């Protein structure tokens, strides 16, 4: 599905095969990125879940190695597509100890770090994890804030505080299409119009998840126009990973 935006880079996806709840086999990973390529994407940052007990092997050094392996398979398959290593770091109680032990999973060679959290309230340890990063000069990108379980007023107040501290926000394409429920869709569409997102990303979790994400890209363009969306899926993501200009 070609939406007319070129040179997009996806900052959040679970493309690495068999390392989390995303793609499970190499062929699935290749087919996912073939589909994104047809929608104008030229590369993805591989961001498997990190700091989550069920995926203890997902640490920066391993992800760098697995990303290089998938890149080699992409090259061998003759697909023109580029990968960067990254991670989706869960803000948990032990997150600062985790980073001290395993290192900070940046988005490619940048100083940006993708973090996520799910919950009905915003606990202090989330702020401590974010402070740890900000104090060390990293830029914090909060994944899919629209999906947080906080009640609306609490959510708005928490997002204002985070924004004031310099945290930037990554919206999920699937939320805009309605795939994450009505609350997430309302928030995401409102934020698109208010220009609150720094970037949008697919958060692809395997082949079945791609059509909903691509519908979200189309819906996003329908909401605010291709020029605005190109900024969020192409210009800024490319700046973050340091991709050369087309
Ligand atoms: Fe994710």
């Amino acid at each position: 599905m070609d939406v007319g935006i070129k040179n997009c880079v996806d900052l959040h996806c679970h493309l690495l095969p068999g390392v989390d709840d995303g793609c499970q086999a190499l062929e699935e990973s290749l087919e996912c990125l073939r589909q994104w390529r047809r929608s104008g994407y030229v590369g993805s940052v591989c961001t498997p879940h990190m700091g989550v007990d069920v995926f203890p092997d997902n640490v920066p050094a391993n992800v760098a190695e697995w990303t290089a392996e998938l890149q080699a398979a992409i090259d061998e398959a003759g697909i023109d597509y580029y990968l960067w290593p990254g991670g989706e770091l869960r803000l948990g109680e032990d997150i600062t100890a985790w980073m001290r032990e395993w290192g900070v999973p940046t988005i490619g060679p940048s100083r940006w770090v993708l973090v996520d959290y799910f919950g009905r309230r915003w606990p202090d340890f989330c702020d401590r994890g974010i402070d740890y990063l900000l104090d060390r000069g990293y830029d914090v990108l909060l994944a899919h804030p629209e999906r947080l379980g906080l009640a609306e007023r609490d959510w708005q107040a928490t997002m204002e505080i985070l924004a004031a501290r310099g945290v930037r926000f990554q919206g999920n394409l699937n939320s805009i299409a309605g795939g994450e429920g009505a609350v997430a869709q309302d928030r995401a569409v409102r934020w698109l119009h208010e220009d609150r997102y720094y970037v949008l990303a697919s958060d692809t979790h395997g082949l079945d998840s791609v059509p909903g994400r691509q519908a979200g890209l189309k819906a996003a363009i329908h909401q605010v126009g291709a020029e605005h969306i190109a900024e969020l899926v192409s210009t800024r993501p490319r700046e973050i990973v340091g991709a050369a200009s087309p």
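The chain has a mean pLDDT of 96. The chain has nine helices and nine strands.
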